[in-house]
Amino acid sequence: MRRAVLSVSLALWGASAPLGAGDATSAAVEQCLSCHLQDDGQIDIVGIQALTALPSEWQFLFEDEFDLDGDGIAGRIRFVSGDEGPMIAKFGKSLAAARFADFALIAGAAHDIDLSEPMTLATLEAAFEARSPKPQWPFSDATAQARFEARGCAGCHVTQTFQMEGQTYMPLSDFLLHDLGDGLRRTAPLWGCPSCVTDAAPHSLPD
Amino acid sequence: MRFALISVLAVCATTAGVAQEAGIAAPTPGIANYDPTMSAKEAVLANWELAAAGIRAGRIVGGKVVDAGAGDASYRALLRQAKFAQKTMVQRYNAALWVYTPGTGIASPMDAETLAAAVRATETPCEATDCSAERAELVAAFAAASAALDAAARDASAALTTRTQGSDTALMSEQLTFMATYLESGVWADDLALTAFGRDGEEVAARIVGTMSLWRNIEPYVGLANPELDAEINASATHLLRTLRRNTRGTDPLKPDGPELAAIKDAATALAVLFKRASAIFAA
After folding, report:
1. Backbone dihedral region of B223: left (phi > 0), alpha (psi from -120 to 50 degrees) or beta?
2. Would an 8 Å CB–CB cutoff place B21 in contact with chain A?
3. What is the pLDDT of residue A23?
4. Using an 8 Å Cβ cutoff, are A45 and A22 in contact?
5. N or C: which end of chain A has fewer CB within 10 A?
6. How many Å lie between the alpha carbon of B128 and the closest alpha carbon of chain A?
7. Which has more pLDDT, B56 or A20?
8. Mean pLDDT across the stretch B150-154?
9. How many angstroms away from the CA of A101 is the closest CA of chain B?
10. Do A86 and B209 touch (CB under 8 A)?
11. Separation in Å, CA A7 to CA A129, A168, B228
12. Helix, strand, coil proportions of chain A in percent (round to 5)?
């Protein structure tokens, strides 16, 4: 089933792939999709376009690196190297990448997939963006949101919103790095996981 | 790869007793070899961006309050939004106050009353049906504060731009000198805007912690050049942080000659001395 979906998907993105995308490009992109593509034809990374559009100032709204407010939550911003200067990382659970392309390069290297050719990278980015599910509004109603906030989840999975092209998004993430006892981890956005907002105890937090 | 290179070069620099120009970091350009690790120069520029983007975040959320005030949001909803916004405005502006250290090229901080007026406006309840006067006051205060933050963010961005052509060593040395001068001067306890709201401790803490965030970005390069000094700085920073927590939490106003500020000043000065030593490593 997955292979059939993969063929369809490759055919679809192939139409908009940069001219001259060769066998090596196809092979690399297919390799990535073979793990990320789901049975419904979409990949398992939600909201790539929306996350790309997330304002760079977003994390500053919540950053409290040394837990100055004493609420027990310390989250930090991480800058990474960029083409024209340092950039704020927002992609990946613990990987440091400011842009999807950088994220893909790091992930590709970890899986021994060569994405170093600019055309391969551009094709991959186009394929993933086209197949990335649009984020969903996470709450069924105001009561569900209030319950989520009352449980303390909104300390990191913040309920602030941002807008892109007239659409309002609630990523439910401060995108900061937090230490939950096993190293720094970026708050996972929950905008593609409706069941996550009702899960009573998803984390086992350190004291 | 980059870190390995930095390490080797840093050892050479230390052995020679002088930090060489190319000795701090060797960026690996090109997305084909993407490496998130920043060069020393990028780390310093990140600190300037930390200040500029932080202040800009305050301006953005303040501006959103102004926009919402012009719309049909209820006063209650507007007040809730404003309370969230002023927290960011206060935190981010105060965390970036080091940019006004003499030598940075930025003239003077905003009038403390501008920020105080925005905070004061969020403390004004209204139970009446018509809250137009309170609403107008809130919008005006946030418009003024947003404009001041906008100017401050542009100043910080301009200061960043002037440093993009600087060398790794010069920028590292300058950054550490600014941090030392700022902490030692005690200017972080001056012109507190929120004493009347019981939040002067919060301001002082944000102003000092702002320099600790800078340290986190540039620490790896000091650590490679002088691990012992790096450890000393981390211990001193931890002590300052504990001192801050102990002496700034609570609602009692900080007294200019009180024991709380004295303790913070002692800890800040001790850290400043170490920053000066770190700066000397990179000075030509």
Report:
1. alpha
2. no
3. 74
4. no
5. C
6. 25
7. B56
8. 96
9. 8
10. no
11. 17, 33, 58
12. 40, 10, 50
Which H or E element spans position A134? none
- Which among A57, A64, A116 has CB closest to B60? A57
pLDDT of residue A207: 41
* Per-residue confidence band for A1, with pLDDT thresholds at 50, 70 and 90: very low
**Two structure tokens written together for A68:** 């100055």
Question: What per-residue confidence (pLDDT) applies to A89?
Answer: 94
Taking the C-alpha atoms of residue B7 and residue B100, their distance in angstroms, rounded to an integer, is: 33
Residue A80 phi, psi dihedral angles, 5° rounding: -130, 165
Q: Can you tell me the distance from the alpha carbon of A56 to that of B126, in angstroms, rounded to the nearest whole number?
A: 35
Predicted ipTM of the assembly: 0.83
Nearest of B206, B260, B233, B196 to residue A65 by alpha carbon: B206
Tokens of A154: 């909104």
- Identify the bridge partners of residue A167 per DSSP, sorted by sequence position: A164
B277 by DSSP, 3-state: which?
helix
How much of chain A, in percent, has pLDDT values that exceed 90?
55
Instruction: Provide the token pair at B217.
Output: 């970005």
Distance from CA of A52 to the nearest CA of B (A): 17
φ, ψ (nearest 5 deg) of residue A87: -130, 160
> What letters, b where the CB count within 10 A reaches 16 and e where it falls short, cover B169-198?
bbbbbbbbbbbbbbbbbebbbeebbbeebe
Calculated CA dihedral for residues B270, B249, B86, B150, nearest 10 degrees = -10
Please tell me the distance from the alpha carbon of residue B34 to that of residue A200, in angstroms, as a whole number. 39
Q: What number of residues does chain B have?
A: 284
Residues 6+ apart with CB under 8 A from A7: none
Q: What is the DSSP letter of A196?
A: G
